[in-house]
Specification:
It contains five helices and three strands; from the N terminus they run H-E-H-H-E-E-H-H. The protein is mainly alpha-helical and 112 residues long. Strand 2 and strand 3 form a beta hairpin. A three-stranded antiparallel beta sheet has the order 1-3-2. The two termini are 32 Å apart.
Length: 112
């Protein structure tokens, strides 16, 4: 399954709870670090593929929220499974000291 990074990032906002509850589109825009017009195009493509649904927030109709569809949840599972496999293969090539060093460097790069 060929999926580019922007197409994967919205469904993979799992850590921000998109798979558990609808998320306001402005929160997805902020999480992606892209402009609204760019994210809107990605959302339209994801909607077209049946991976996400967009609807007005019940309490405030001016705010649109994004939810994963059952197909979107399945897609996230497929992507996460593939990522775990690839990461496992990469880490399998490293000894414990190298793994520790790599994790330390990745944390440093991510600002943790």
């Amino acid at each position: 399954m060929s999926t580019s990074t922007p197409r994967v990032r919205v469904p993979c906002e799992r850590a921000r709870g998109l798979d558990r509850a609808p998320s306001p589109i402005y929160a997805v825009v902020e999480a992606m670090g892209r402009g609204l017009s760019r994210v809107s195009r990605v959302i339209r493509r994801l909607e077209g593929r049946g991976l996400v649904s967009k609807m007005p927030l019940t309490e405030d109709k001016r705010v649109n929220v994004l939810s994963l569809t059952p197909g979107g949840k399945k897609h996230v599972e497929v992507v996460e499974t593939a990522l775990r496999r690839v990461i496992g293969e990469v880490f399998a090539q490293l000894d414990q000291a190298e793994r520790t060093e790599l994790l330390s460097l990745l944390k440093k790069l991510s600002g943790e």
